[in-house]
Amino acid sequence: MAEHDKHGTFDEVTGKHTTGHEWDGIEELNTPLPRWWVLTFYACIIWSFAYWAVYPAWPLVQSYTTGWFNYSSRADVAVELAKLEAIRGDKMAALATAPLADIEKDPGMLAMARARGKAVFGDNCAACHGTGAAGSKGFPNLNDDDWLWGGTLEQIEQTIKYGARSGHAEAHEGQMLAFGQSGTLNKDEIVTVANYVRSLSGLSTRPGVDVAAGGKIFAENCTVCHGDEAKGNPDLGAPNLTDRIWLYGSDEATIIETVTNGRAGVMPAWIDRLDPGTIKAMAVYVHSLGGGK
Amino acid sequence: MNKPVLPKDLQTDPDGPLYVAQKKIYPQSVSGTFRRIKWYLMAICLGIYYFLPFVRWNRGIGAPDQAVLIDLPNSRFYFFFIELWPQEIYYFTGLLIVAAITLFLMNSLGGRVWCGYLCPQTVWTDVFYAVERLIEGDRRERMKKAAEGLTLQRGAELVLKHSIWILIAWWTGGAWVLYFADAPTLVKELVTFQAPMIAYIWIGILTSTTYLLAGFMREQVCVYMCPWPRIQAALTDEWALNVTYKYDRGEQRTSLKKAEQARAQGEKVGDCIDCNQCVAVCPTGIDIRDGSQLDCIQCGLCIDACDTVMKKIGRETRLIGYDNDINIHRRMEGKPEVFRMVRPRTVVYSALIVGVGAIMLYALMTRSLLDVNVLHDRNPLAVRLSDGSVRNAYTMRLLNKRAFDRVVAIDVEGPAGAQVQVVGVDQITPERPTIVLGRDQTTELRVLVTSSPDAQLAPSTPVKFHITDIGLGEVASTSDNFVTP
Questions:
Q1: Do both B317 and B410 map to the same domain?
Q2: How many CA atoms does the CB half-sphere of A53 hold within 13 Å?
Q3: Is B146 part of the contact surface with chain A (CB cutoff 8 Å)?
Q4: What CATH number is given for A75-148+269-288 in this structure?
Q5: Which of residues 373-392 of B touch A (CB under 8 A)?
Q6: Which residue ranges traverse the bilayer (chain A) (predicted)?
Q7: Which CATH number fits domain A175-261: 1.10.760.10, 2.40.50.140, 3.30.70.260, 2.60.15.10?
Q8: Of the residues A185, B1, B118, B364, which has the maximum number of CB atoms within 10 A of its CB?
Q9: Do residues B395 and B298 both lie within one domain?
Q10: Residues near A214 by Cβ (< 8 Å), separated by ≥ 6?
């Protein structure tokens, strides 16, 4: 090290000057960049101006600079989606016309319907039924084999199309009456019949409650919809009370609440929002979840 | 060895710009052992690169018959008898590990063998220099012509040179795309302008990079763009044989005439006659006598140049040669030379190469051609059915890596009495669904496993899926769990 000058020192070992920057006695050698590198760098800066001109770049108060060609990534997406729809066109048309049962038989159509159904389900149905269609209290689990309005492909399609108590003319109608509110049954009777209902599927009953009397109340008030054997009626959306699946819950308090206040869950009609092919795909998807009849 | 550089030899002017102009290099032609090795290696490397796509390999009807093919649309990689699927990308990891350690090993034995002999940048630059030399003449002529400026003949030479360069570059880009499609078909399509646009785009990109990197950037790529010289510098050790100027023998550099006079008077002088031939032939324009340096790609051409001169003046060859500092110092101390090729570093590298290679080979030989993956439904995990039984649903992927369709049966070992059902499949026997798997493809199924209504279930029971090829008897298995709600 010697020859201090305004550029730092001259380093004899490397034969180079230092930049004059020093950290704890360690000095940085001045190693200039190759000219092509610097020129490339400048070219990139100029290139960036071209970008500003060609592509949307600067935010303005109300909008933004749109660039020479009015390029928009959103428009690109729309074009790509349209292309995708065009590719799917034939298959979706086939799906719309094929009988439901045939769709499940054809591996290609089944895969298509399941994929389409899953996507549409996520967008439209998951809000109530859950992303996995597992449902929750008041919203049926679509994976199981218990169906309020029937679990065949046609019945599922029908339910999706018109809904239940949706206000659509073709919708499923029928509801659980509010036996308590209307005064048809008094509190004691409701407790009694609730315990009888629990006994139908082998659940424990409250000691001291006359289950046989409950059976009588049931026969007088409930069998119209739920049937003599309490197996339910899909035409009326009356659930089977002898199985292990409970839409609102099987504990005594919940059943008492159901009988007292009634139940009337709503499933919207989708026929005005989704095209027939998509509804078919969704019916196949729901059916294929495992519970379909 | 570091020798002081006088301020007058400074490469940089402290008052000058903050960048340096590229120094034009005119490497002189040379012949000798290492030049010959480089010619052979160049022929082998380029031969493989340009002609490999045309090698055929019979894989049966319906399968591509190209020996090396990267089939992107169908996501398959074919290499002679090997066919790899995307999920077998780990074979490439193994290959990369072996390649990296091989580079380490080469480095600890012979320095930057890769840079000097095998790197595409070196090989193609060498080809381009050969073309340049053929058309414009050797170093002195080229320097003279460059200084003289443009004449008609010079212009014609330049046009010819660049045309040939572009042709080579175009062939290079063309060969690249042939690895991604059936080569003969693609060649035909390219010639008749029916090939897909993407092929022309890639040929264009690689033509321009080849032309630019081998024709103009040359040593700048090695010095400024490539990270490998830095890595290699860190990998070398004191025993590695690098291209070295043996300054113990060469110094003091003395011209032939003066050396004779000095020797006549009994003075000791070095063998280097300072003829600068080693500098003249260097493709990166350095002086090897300054010692080991970043810019040196260790191609060995200076060895050939020096040997030629030494033979001419009747002195011992290999004043420049593959050597290391240890031997330089031993010779200076009058001790015999020592070469240690076998040392812990090289042994460990070799062992790793053999080890990883063996593991890969074993994995490849025992590779299953029927595979099954199962993914348990997450939402819902389990479903209670109306009769009280529990159902779990699984997404099953079946991989048939054979070139023909096959029929498989699905067996499930799970909770006692469990039933298996595949959505969309009519079952002949309830507990053993059978599926047809298309050749060379993946089949995705929805599999439902249902316990018997009265089963006593633990919160989680292991469940095994066995897939049996009914024809060949091949079995693939996987396991998951069966859970309760």
A1: no
A2: 5
A3: no
A4: 1.10.760.10
A5: 377-380, 383-388, 391
A6: 36-54
A7: 1.10.760.10
A8: A185
A9: no
A10: A192, A193, A194, A195, A196, A197, A199
